[in-house]
Structure formats: C-alpha cells, structure tokens
Amino acid sequence: MTPGIPKGTRDFGPEELYKRRYIFDIIQKHFELYGYSPIETPSMENLETLLGKYGDEGDQLLFKVLNNGDFLSKVPTELLDEKNSQKATSHLSKRGLRYDLTIPFARYAVMHRNDITLPFKRYQIQPVWRADRPQKGRYQEFYQCDADVIGSESLQYEAECVLLFDQVFAELGLEVDIRINNRKLLSALCYLIDAGERISPITAAIDKLDKIGHDGVRKILEKEGLNDQQIEVIAQYLKIDDLSGIRHLFQDQEEAQVGISEIEQIFNFLNGKPMSNKLTFDPTLARGLSYYTGAILEVKSTQVEMGSIGGGGRYDNLTALFGGEKLGGMGISFGAERIYDVMEELGLLDQAQIDAPVLILLQDEQLQEYGFDILQQLRRHGIRSDLYPAGAKMKKQMKYADRVKARYILILGPEEWERKEIAVKDMTTGQQSNAGISEVVDIILDKTGA
RNA sequence: GUGAUUGUAGCUCAGUUGGUUAGAGCGCCGGAUUGUGGUUCCGGAGGUCGGGGGUUCAAAUCCCCUCAGUCACCCCA
After folding, report:
1. Measured from the CB, is A6 under 7 Å from any atom of strand B?
2. In A203-339, which ranges are E strands?
3. What is the C-alpha separation between A239 and A219, in angstroms, rounded?
4. Of the candidates A292, A10, A304, which has an alpha carbon nearest to the alpha carbon of residue A138?
5. Could you tell me if A123 and A146 are in contact, meaning their C-beta atoms sit under 8 angstroms apart?
6. So what's the ipTM on this one?
7. Which residues in window 274-293 of A are less than 7 A from strand B by Cβ?
8. Does domain A358-448 have CATH number 3.30.450.40?
C-alpha cells in the first residue's frame, strides 16, 4: 500500500510544530492573563450532545463514530432495506467527534455545575473535526482556541473579548479588522418586517452583502419569498452604517433598542483603551452559528485574503439545552490554522524557531564514551545538546550539523584529548578555538543566553 | 451536496499534430577533500507516466471508468 492520511488532515514536522507552538503560546498566555483557566474535554461526545446545535448543515458535517460490536444486527430490517443512512444513523452511531469547543463547554458547565463558581471563565485549545470538503484555509481537523465566560450577563466580557482579540493579534504581528454587531438587531429587523421565523435565511443573505452586493442580497431574498415591501426595509437597513441610523430605523422597538445600547455600552467600556486594531460596528455581520443571541464578533485579516480568523459572541441559553439552569455566556474563538496560514504568508513565522542546539562530533570512535560524558555535562547546565553517534566521517558529521542548524559544534579528537581540550566551532561565523570543558560551557551559556 | 481543475523521479515541473531508450532543476548518494558544513567541480542512483480498461502498427499524449489531490460554491475557523 502507499501511505497516506485522510483528506483534510495534515502531518506537522518539527519546523511547523515550532511555529504552531509559537502561536498557541501567545494565545494561551493572554487567555491566562485575562483570567481564563484551562479545561479539556474528550474528542468524542455523545451524538445527542452534538446533534441539532449547529443547524442542519452542521449536523451533516459531524463526524460520527461507528458503534462497536455487531451493531448492524440491532438495526431494524426495514431501515436496512430502506438504505436511508440518515434514519439509520441513530442505530449505527451514538458518538461523534466534537465540532467546536463551545457546545462541549456548555455540556461541561452543566455537568459540573456543582464544582464551578460563577462567573466561570475557561479556555480550551483542542482540535475539532468537520466533515467539510477541504480547501484553502479549511481542514477536516483543526485547532480552535476558545475562551468563554459563563454565568454573567455583564457586557464587560464583550469588551474584554474585544481587547483579547486586539492584544493577541497585535502580539502575533497581524493587522486585523474586528467587527461587531448584535443578533438582537437582526432579529428585530425580521420582526419589523413580520418575518420573525425566517431569521436564519434572512441573516444568511445579509451576511453575504460584502461578497455579492445589494442586488445579490435582493435576489436571494426574493427567492426566499419575501415581498417587495419587506425587501425594501432590509435594503434600507443595509445602507445604514452607524448606530444612530439604526436607532432611527427601529424607533421604539424594544429589542432593537436593547441591542443598540448594548453595543454602545461595549464601546463605552472600550473608550480610551489603547488598541492596535479597529473595532467597527457592522450591522450586516451575521455569523452562522445559530446559538448566538447578543453581541457577535468577527475578526478578519486586513493583509491576507482569508475567511475569518476569529469570531465569537454572546449566547444566552446554551446550558438550558442540556437541562441545566439558564446561564448566559460570552466567548470567542481563535482559528489557529488560519492564523498560521496568514502569518506564514506574511513571513511572520520565520523566526519562530527554537534556538539551535549544540552538537558534539567525534574525530575518533574511541572517544564516544568521553563524548557522551561531555554531552551530559552540557545537559546538566541546561544546554540543549546532542552527540553524533560514532563512526561517520567528519564531512558527514559536519553536514549533519549544518542540516540540523547547530549553532555550535564541539569536536573531540585525539589532539584535543591529549591537551584536555575541546574544539569549539561557531557555525554561524566559522570560527574555531580550543578550550577546556568548563570554559566551553561558559562560552555557550554566554553566547546563547541560556 | 454542486462545479471546475490537476495527477510524469523524493520535490517543483517540461514532454510538440500519438512515433525509438520519458527529460530538466532542486534534493539524495559517492568522489575531488582519510580533521571541518553551508560555495564549486565530477560521477551515480532513482520513474508501474495515479489505477483499470479501450482505440491504434505504436499511447505520458486520444476515449471511457475509477481513485487521489487542489480550488471555488454552499457553509465555516
């Protein structure tokens, strides 16, 4: 067989992993700085936990795990004859791979309600899986970095999340656009045109505005069966780009007014706070996940064409889905893979590599044990080091040293052995000198700052 | 789920209207250089042309099927 990996998945070599770790470390550091604590949940959840939370599309994209044992024997024969995978699923699979980190977190919060204190702030950096067809910036297995707070309605958390986005992307060296909107405005809009139950197709259409333009949106809405009057109101809404305009449009409609003042309060919290990136109010921002009820956030790179690299929002009622008390929550998610792709394209990850190690080379096989001894002395001093196994020509050893990007090489040979010295070569300058072991340690510690 | 596109050496790709033994660059291995890499020079290894079937005197090239990758749409990070 020829080796391969499933589509939409990737191997990561050492170089990539150092770069990824650089990103994850910065995100994690800021999560903790902002008072979030880590949790982890299993890769698999019960399917009933996952199903119905992400909309029909989401359900389609769930990876389902086949039951163990002779599961086919338990499927009613009518269903087998029907060959309807959808209907048979409940008999074939009771577990699925997690699709995001938010739903598992809500499940966690309900299950561990007695152990957590509200408001509960947690972060989670783990892979999620979607049976999507892969393309640029889209994989079937990818990491999300989520920070959520549950059990508080306070808008300070919305503001906090905006700052978190801003600070993390600033430290990563990325320029981004952070956009904010409020689901209450969208739902009020649908209510205004007497189409409250059509909120998801309508918001889906609105969300596409910057891609397909006003006419495109109009066409979709026509297809959805809205009448001219309704479409006209939506078109009006889409032309507004400031809060006072929105306020005027909705006059004394309560839900919209609440949404507007929420956004205003968030801006008030942020007033005067130094930010590297711009936060803009965008009434056309909708976001796909259906569980958001309040503020919604989305982050896009201004430098590289790529889907959103971060997003989030407030959800009022996720815990109730699992039979818990109603706990409001607010959370954001960093799309690590896309951030990686963006940074790679901008060349921002080139220096994200670990300090090159020290490598010991042997001139003579007889000196291997001596070399091993030197190696351990270096390691005891905290110097990242390695010993090339005996038996290779110096040229080959040198080439290896070059390949692994060794900063220093130590050469042990009969001549040096006679004088109780070690040859030290700085691979970046090519300079070489002899010194005793303790002096060698000092040189390396000094130069590498280890 | 829908649509496009590409599969030729480890990698990136040439390969003319079908025509002898399928090429290049990079990489790899060896040597020039038995105590010194990244430069240079010389030599070498490495290919079921994604797979299967068909047309033909002859197929990497044309046709059909199939598999895989990539990209776009839907949706999303």
Report:
1. yes
2. 278-281, 295-301, 310-315, 329-335
3. 16
4. A10
5. yes
6. 0.82
7. 287-289
8. no
How many CB atoms are located within 10 Å of the residue A365 CB? 11
- CB of A49 closer than 8 Å to CB of A93: no
Tens-place pLDDT, residues A404-416: 888 899 999 998 9
For the segment(s) A14-38+99-345, the CATH number from 2.170.190.11, 3.30.70.260, 3.30.930.10, 3.30.460.10 is 3.30.930.10
Report the greatest alpha carbon distance in chain A: 96
A182 C-beta less than 7 Å away from strand B: no
Chain A 390..419 CB hits on strand B (< 7 A): 394-396, 398-399, 401-403, 411, 413-416
Name beta bridge partners: A181. Answer: A296
The model carries a pTM of: 0.88
Stated in angstroms, how far is A134 CA from B73 C1'? 13
- The model's pLDDT over A102-121, given as tens digits with 9 standing for 90+, comes to 999 999 999 999 999 999 99
Q: What angle do CA A88, A89, A93 make, to 5 degrees?
A: 130
Question: What is the rounded distance in angstroms from the CA atom of residue A193 to the CA atom of residue A252?
Answer: 15
- Give the CA distances from residue A235 to residues A27, A183, A188, in Å, rounded to whole numbers and listed in that order: 39, 17, 15
Angle at A92 between CA A90 and CA A93, to 5 degrees: 70
